[in-house]
Design brief:
0% strand, single chain
């Protein structure tokens, strides 16, 4: 891993810790933070050739104003088209398509109110930056945090905290080349 990649991961980790702190303290993460990192993730994915994933984010934002009954099938159709274009026309591998699928899942979670807007934007950005593995790590951390919350009889949990924990563990494992 290069020094530039390590610095990048450290800066993302600091960003995630700041967002987690804000979420725990205020239950809100400002749009200026979440949108900035989301745009950064979209640019990064586009530079690496996965511009269909960045376009999916734009489409998801547009579809957010429509009823679920319209937005869900349209987004599924867009996902299929993005996957076909990525595989057939661009020659992108399965990793790029998994990123697109995870992004669809994240957006559906937000659309059906299973996660908050900041959580969704941060997860989308991380998935664009690091791939589908970071989504799985954040989800696993969320499950562990959820079990702990149940143990302590907490009804709600600021979800950016487990996202940050899972993502930082993922980045540390990547640094040690365990993932």
């Amino acid at each position: 891993m290069t020094t530039t990649a390590i610095v990048h991961d450290v800066l993302i980790a600091i960003f995630l810790l700041a967002c987690a702190w804000l979420d725990v303290k205020t239950r809100k993460v400002p749009n200026v933070l979440t949108l900035t990192v989301l745009v950064y993730g979209m640019i990064s994915a586009s530079i690496r050739g996965n511009w269909p994933a960045a376009l999916l984010v734009v489409l998801f934002v547009i579809l957010s104003d429509l009823r679920q009954s319209i937005a869900s099938p349209v987004s599924l159709l867009a996902l299929a088209i993005a996957g076909i274009v990525s595989w057939q026309k661009l020659g992108l591998g399965l990793d790029a398509i998994l990123v697109q699928i995870m992004m669809f899942v994240i957006w559906q979670m937000w659309l059906h109110r299973l996660t908050g807007g900041a959580d969704a934007k941060i997860l989308l950005a991380l998935t664009l930056l690091y791939g589908s593995g970071i989504f799985l790590a954040a989800t696993l951390a969320g499950g562990v945090f959820g079990l702990v919350a149940l143990l302590f009889k907490k009804r709600t949990l600021p979800y950016v905290l487990p996202i940050a924990a899972g993502a930082i563990v993922f980045m540390a494992l990547k640094l040690t080349q365990l993932v």
